[in-house]
Amino acid sequence: MSWRDVVLELELQSPCPLTGWSGSVTYRILMELIRQEAEPKGRIFAHPLYSGGRPVLSGVDGKAAVLEPKTRVQLRAVMTEQDLYYLLKAAPKAKPTSPPCPTTPTAIQFAPLEAKLGEGHGFALVELSFYPTAFMFHGRDVLYPSPQRLAYSLAKTYWELFGVNLKHLADRAPTALEVVGMRIKRVGVNIGDMRVVPAFMGKAKLAIYGNVEAWLSLLKLGEAVGVGISRAIGFGKYKIEQVQTNA
Questions:
Q1: Which CATH number belongs to the domain containing residue 21 in this structure?
Q2: What residues does 75 pair with on adjacent strands?
Q3: Are residues 154 and 101 in the same domain?
Q4: Among candidates 105, 96, 98, which has minimal Cα distance to 13?
Q5: CA distance 7 to 73
Q6: Which long-range contacts (CB under 8 A, 24 or more apart) does 37-40 make?
Q7: Domain span including residue 102
Q8: Whether residue 48 is found in the same domain as residue 101
Q9: Are residues 22 and 74 both part of a single domain?
Q10: d(Cα 75, Cα 28) in Å, to the nearest integer?
Q11: 108 and 132 share a domain?
């Protein structure tokens, strides 16, 4: 199965009040558009809604936002090539999407999702900025950037997307990855219907030792698809701020 990294630009047709998590809105709009052609054929990994190039973090600790009419917003997601085909068919003829955020598609960009892992050993420091993220371990919330949970989440995603088992790499996480600094906070995120779930946000510095290029490839993948739970609605997204190799 082929996967695509997609950015869909839309224009708001009326004021868009956001009291809940904007990633839930992104997912709903994408599903509404795709279903105009067919039922989705695979998983969709959505991002939060973006406005002005920045994620809209509505629904975090009760935060609300109102986007004005004519505002251009971006929906970012990873989806199968088949679902992208349905989206491309639907977008030119789409009617404004349903409330609370009626939008009309204006442009779409897409690129193949990179599957190849780099090769090269050494040492690196990686600075990451996390948007709302949560891991689970045997039914328990893990609300910090745990290196082991990060590694197993990325390895599991690689298996789901490309059918390659990286458990051997993830099993090395205790000796390959370490958080050497972090500034995070725990938050509650309203994901809809007043259901508030715990998550964390903030910055972390990750030290990588060993097969650095493979880990960096996985972290780049994680930027697109996220890590942890509830990735369909935009949880688990982070940004790689800086990479220092052989630091």
A1: 3.30.70.1890
A2: 8
A3: no
A4: 96
A5: 10
A6: 37/86, 37/87, 37/89, 37/90, 38/86, 40/79, 40/80, 40/83, 40/86
A7: 3-112
A8: yes
A9: yes
A10: 11
A11: no
> Which stretches does DSSP call E strand in the chain?
3-12, 16-18, 45-46, 50-51, 54-55, 65-67, 72-80, 103-112, 122-133, 135-137, 140-142, 177-190, 196-210, 238-245
Orientation angle between helical segments 212-225 and 147-162, nearest 10 degrees: 80
Neighbours of 218 (CB within 10 A): 23
Q: Give the sign of the dihedral formed by CA 5, CA 183, CA 122, CA 137.
A: negative
Count other Cβ atoms within 10 Å, centred on residue 239: 12
Query: CA-CA distance, 60 to 148, in Å (whole number)?
Result: 26
pLDDT tens sequence across 198-236: 999 999 999 999 999 999 999 999 999 999 999 999 999
- Write down the pTM of the prediction: 0.92
Q: Which of 184, 223, 234 is nearest to 20 (CA)?
A: 234
For the chain, the domain total comes to: 2
- Find tokens 């994620």 and name the residue: 55
Q: Is 231 helix (H, G, I), strand (E, B) or coil?
A: helix
Q: Which residue has the tokens 């190849």?
A: 116
Tell me if 151 sits within 8 A of 177, measured CB to CB: yes
For residue 226, report the phi and psi dihedrals to the nearest 5 degrees.
85, 175
The band of 247, judged by pLDDT with boundaries at 50, 70 and 90, is low
- CA-nearest of 228, 202, 22, 233 to 134 is 228
